[in-house]
Amino acid sequence: MVNRVDILEAVKITSNRVKLFDDKKRYLATGNLSNQGIDNFLFVDYENKPSRADLMVSEGDLILARMKATNKVFLIDCDSENLIVSTGFLTLKPKDGFDGRYLYHYFRSKTFQRLKDKYCSGATQMAISNSSFKNLKVPHYKIAQQKKIVQILDTASNLRQKRKEQLASLDDYLKSVFIEMFASYLNIQSEFIYLEKLTKKITVGHVGPTSFAYIDRGIPFLRTQNIKRNFIDLNQLAYIGEEFHRKLKKSQIHTNDVLISRVGVNRGMAAVVPKELDSANCANVVIVGKSEGFNSIFLSAYLNFTYGRSAKFGYSVGSAQGVVNTSIIKKWPIIDVNIEIENKFASIVEQVENTKQKMRASLEEMDTHFNALMQRYFE
User: Is the confidence at residue 311, as pLDDT, over 80?
Assistant: First the structure.
């Protein structure tokens, strides 16, 4: 059984306020920190800085997002010293007997995040206060054991990151092949064809309540989170019964249809329906029916690259969140390419996607192993 101590035995809440400074300083908002680290900084001067830009951090400090259901943690290194961070972060300094990277891994664990969320409060945006944070506990190992845990978790994390980088490199390779093969078709003088001229079917899958119809096993029911760039992600796949499926005839999908996510972080992403999902169903997804007018794999890749998702294609309309609208999709200009060239490119995509599928499976195994390690050390 792991010994647990009060969190204030492990860290000190620093809350070092910003003092008057000259010129500009780097500022980190909560939105600029992701699971991969710092995405970017804002540069602010003292007079015009946002009101939330009011905490200073030093090398070795830890910051973690206060908001509920927000797993954002960062260990300040020498490159990020003297950084201004948002008051949306808790700023912490490890105490003697606690390793900073050990605490970093613990704060990112599901165990800690569940505890943090339990103590979050607030009317508009739930977040953890300093006083509530003091109620939390930390698993306590001797410092030598903490360093061993860090070494193991860092090694596992680095392997996962390398696999993600390999997947990203394959995406870059595909994009370079696309540019090499189709650059001459993408200039202003090239011929374009509206997508609606290439297919008889452009429609939206079911829009409306669906969770009441979910069952443990049945007809696969794709949602926006299942549509990724050039592939269907079967994680978090929902299922519906035969009766509900028959009612949603318009949203039934078939092999080689192209699906486009309408909303959310996947908005605008496109993927081809594989044969194993023939006659499945979907919600909040645009369905572009298969056609002899295009190779579906080519069309999916085309839409996923910059050319298919740039502002000039008007892919997003609606509120600040944005929705991919069928009336605009119908007018998406598709480059006029000989079908044999499309097929050649599609063959390359299929080979690369087969490799990526194996890599994604490997990454899932790595994730499972990493989560098991986190559970072993922190539960």
Answer: no
